[in-house]
Write the structure tokens for this entry.
Amino acid sequence: MIDGLNTMLPLAWRNLWRNPRRTGITLIVVAIGVWSILFFNAFMIAWAKSSKETTLQLLLGSGQIHAEGYMDDPSIEKLMDPPDLDLTSALDLPAVADWTTRVVVPGVVQSEYKTLPATIVGVDPTAEARISSIPGKIAEGRYLNSSDDDSAVLGLHMVERLKTGLGRRVILMSQNTAGAMSEQSFDVVGIYDADKATEDLYVFTGRAASQAFLGLEGEIAQIVFVLQEEMALEDTIAAMADAAPDLDVRSWRDLNLFLASMDSYMRVFIHVWLGIVFALMAIGIINTQLMAVFERTQEFGLLRALGMKPRRVLLMVTIENALLIGVGVLLGMAMAAVTIWSVSDGIDFSAFARAMEMVQTGEIIYLDYEPDAFILFPGLIWLLGILVALWPARRASNCRPVDAMRRET
Amino acid sequence: MDPIVTCRGLSKTFGKGELAVHALRDVDLDIMPGDIATLAGPSGSGKTTLLNMIGALDEPTSGEVSVGGQPLSGISRSGLSDLRLSKIGFVFQSYNLIPVLSARENIEFVLQLQGVSGSERHDRAMEAIKEVGLAGMEDRRPGKMSGGQQQRVAVARALVSRPTIVLADEPTANLDSKNALELVDLMRNLNREHGTTFLIGTHDVRVMEHSMRHIEMVDGRIDNDARSSA
Ligand SMILES: Nc1ncnc2c1ncn2[C@@H]1O[C@H](COP(=O)(O)OP(=O)(O)OP(=O)(O)O)[C@@H](O)[C@H]1O
Ligand SMILES: [Mg+2]
């Protein structure tokens, strides 16, 4: 058998180059298939990762803690005290990179022209800047100076809709602790530029300022934290839930279900793509190989006449196919590696990101080599390719010597 | 001496009903060891069909073929492959060689199928190449050889496995006179020196002149079977 392979491998290799055109077509079909799967996979993963990071960095963080019931009804009655000692020590675990507290209440924002619903967020600007990307997205003016800063930072799109601007004043209204409406005018000191959905929703002011406005005595709505490593998520959540059994501790996966399911959507996409590519490739392989077998009928007839058993002919043709498809797969891998390497500086996605403001996307996407995908997908394609090529190979092995010999005359 | 090949009541019919072609009708034939026999006859008389039956390439409609005393009927497809490999050498009219293999590799190929070890394969193939007068050409591929040379390689390959019988169907049909004569001489000499048995289907009088037995076929039957002392 080993001896058989020794002689069959060179034979198979030489046979590949007999019809360079056909070999070339098969190689290109397989290579493009493998390339597209690897590139698509790398791109989808990078895109999802970038979307995730962008979203988490915007406001969400790795996780948040609220009072029980706040998530269903985010009202002024569902606030909580700042973290106690137990919770603070859990928040100060080394796995947690940073955390801060926010007041988050529903309300309205009013200009001379318009009244719009808004979510009023009171922040501690110093800590906020370490957790959220919004302080870094100021397009005009400035971000908040301190927790006591009683000015307002609005989103670009909201400013347009309100027809207000930097240096003008807006009125924020919300239910206060007494059950009445508080309203207060705030200077617009900064305008941030994020995605439309965020810009239309969030109005920022200082945390202490918001507490004063709402008549709160230090209560907060939310603790938000960011982890050093995504790996530690579950353990950290568990530690925090232990430290604060009365509170509602949630990871970003529970807070943003779309983002959480994106991973599985993405895998489904990739597998559908794999299926399509594979179907096209299978058609290509079967076509070219059937043609090859047809053209070589005489040769297979000769081999059978000389005493080569059908099974051995099958093996020989299968080795040829394995080599051919294998070379195509390697070519596709090389092409994918080069492509990914050539965009290792990142793909500038800013135009697309702006066009798709519905979905959070990083402006620049960095593709990564995924060692698993680079082995799994090409391996799968190779094996499946050999499998479908068994059909033409069986035809070859079933060539009857007499029929083959008759063709010549 | 026992015959190497026996055919008894051999018939082959292609097709059915009105379209049926009776390519062989009740053929009885014995080939003795050391024979060099030609199978002649008009086109369509059944020469190729008979060679295919003896070479275990096709099955008779009725009757029996035995090669080396072994009846072919009832042997499996893979068993027939083994039998062809070990007992029968073939020289066809054309498309004899595997195009991507050199002369030597083509010859080694059958030895390899037989499981002969690498070094022995090489030596035997080189010896066969020398024997057919192609020393120095062993590394050429079929495309780089003349028709006559290719047929010699085919003869070398047919011989190298030391078969019971070599079946050649129109081996000289694509050759010019000179090459045809050389091929006939080669087979004649191999027959003399090694006692190799040849059965050659041919229209070629030059081939017939060099054989010691003429079998004449007409319409699927053996019409005449004569020995001469050529
Ligand atoms: N596979 C087949 N199907 C149908 N008819 C066949 C088949 N093989 C051979 N025949 C017919 O059988 C008859 C004998 O054919 P065969 O090839 O044996 O003749 P031949 O003597 O070798 O002729 P030639 O000298 O032309 O080679 C012919 O009439 C031929 O048409
Ligand atoms: Mg014939």
User: Anything to note?
Assistant: Residues 177-194 of chain B form the longest helix (18 residues).
